[in-house]
Amino acid sequence: MATKKKLNLNRVDMPKQADFIRKRNFKEVALGYSVEDAVEEASRCLDCKKPICVDGCPVEIDIPGFIRAIANRDFSLAIKTLKERNCLPAVCGRVCPQEEQCEIKCILQKKGAPVAIGRLERFAAEWETKQDNVELPGIMKKTGKRVAVIGSGPAGITVAGDLILLGHDVTMYEALHEPGGVLTYGIPEFRLPSKVVTREIEYLQKLGVRLICNFVVGKTRSLQKILDEYDVVFVGTGAGLPWFMNIPGENLNGVYSANEYLTRVNLMRGFEYPKTYTPVVRHKKVAVVGGGNVAMDCARTALRLGAEESVVVYRRSEAELPAREEEYENAVEESVEFNFLTLPEKLIGDENGWLKEIECSRMELGEPDASGRRRPVRIDGSEFRMKMDACIIAIGNSPNPIIPQTTPDLDVSKWGTIEVDEDSLKTSIDRVWAGGDIVSGAATVILAMGAGRKAARSMHKYLSDTSL
């Protein structure tokens, strides 16, 4: 009688750079699984008859299927299974919050640690890149229908990838000089290397997607004129309009939006100056206002640019911190400091217009607000000052306003998001769909991809019906 294998309740750790080394370089922090580590972790999967992990995936990946393939050392099948539903596995395996989506539904979550779905997804994608020839999927017979995708971020990439495989001609427009949207300008090199995004974009181009950069729809050409040239249009221009606190001193030198700071460092590779043409001031004492993943990215980037002190200033407590646990832990390991229950109220400059101090107040938590979190309340008389030469505002973003402002017939909410039909993601303009952060407001990469998938299905149905 065969001996039943003992269930392993502990996930295989992924190696990463030592904290004292990585906080001074822009190389990727997590180093990825070896083949043996990946097979061992994949072997933990129970291969459930009713895999509820799939229910937690916005793009509906066959999670047990690709993990089973890894456990059987059939890595080619693993990546093929992933790409049936996800055209960005190398990206999603790095930056998606699996712990809140697929992994939280894993049966092993209740017994020990869930299967490391994201790490295995990354492994399969990395295995593929090491092969001499990346296998391209079959493309259906050409339909002759033309699709314009505005924005080359996660939502746009997903729409383009899905519709090109269905036989439609796809052109993707990007406002910046490099494609990738938030994947390129908003996520640091140490979390998502630019070569990974470039590789995924090149894969789309190999499938036949045409890419046009330096093209601002709404400025270079109106949405209506784009629509005159194509059968259908998808708008996925994201949420690139930064929020500020509207406090005195926000116009001082040394005060940045997270968008500007990360774009200069990431997209324009300011961290490589003078090899590149975009200098970034190497501040010594940096405060980052906010508590999300973007705030962690800014604080950790500041250290890599040579900051002696990098402090996250957050108005709620540690328990309410919205950043991923992994990103918070990495920041703490790298010696980022945290000032919880603290609210900046005034930025103070020197005689030359550069930031020198931040005046803050202490907070306490009151009753829950609309978000369900306890509302921070200012404590009278608790004011204090922090000596800082830089302040990065990372409190959120609004949707990109250019297309809504230049397209009169497009229905837009009071928050600046494009209004769409919930089921189809159709806009108020015939033959125009929208999805991702321009519709939902700033959210995650995988949710934008889920919206892209939904829109692509609706667009394909429309194109198929109109070709009858």
Characterise the protein shown here.
The protein folds into 3 domains: 19-129, Fumarate Reductase Iron-sulfur Protein, Chain B, domain 2, CATH 1.10.1060; 146-240 and 398-466, FAD/NAD(P)-binding domain; 244-395, FAD/NAD(P)-binding domain (3-Layer(bba) Sandwich). Helices cover 31% and strands 16% of the residues. It is built from 16 helices and 16 strands. It starts with 18 loop residues before the first helix and ends with a helix. The model has no long low-confidence stretch (mean pLDDT 93).
> Could you give the count of β-strands?
16
Oligomer: single chain
Structural class: alpha/beta
CA gyration radius, whole angstroms: 23 Å
Q: What number of structural domains do the residues give?
A: 3
Helix content: 25-40%
Task: Could you tell me the CATH topology label of the largest domain.
Answer: FAD/NAD(P)-binding domain
Mean of residue pLDDT?
Answer: 93
Low-confidence stretches: none
Question: Which overall shape is indicated by the principal axes computed on the Cα atoms?
Answer: globular
CATH homologous superfamily assignment of the largest domain: FAD/NAD(P)-binding domain
The CATH architecture of the largest domain comes to: 3-Layer(bba) Sandwich
- Helical segment count: 16
Largest sheet: 5 strands, parallel
Strand proportion, as a percent range, falls in 15-25%
CATH class label of the largest domain: Alpha Beta
Provide the spatial order of strands within the biggest beta sheet: 3-2-1-4-16
Measured between the Cα atoms of the first and last residue, the distance is: 61 Å
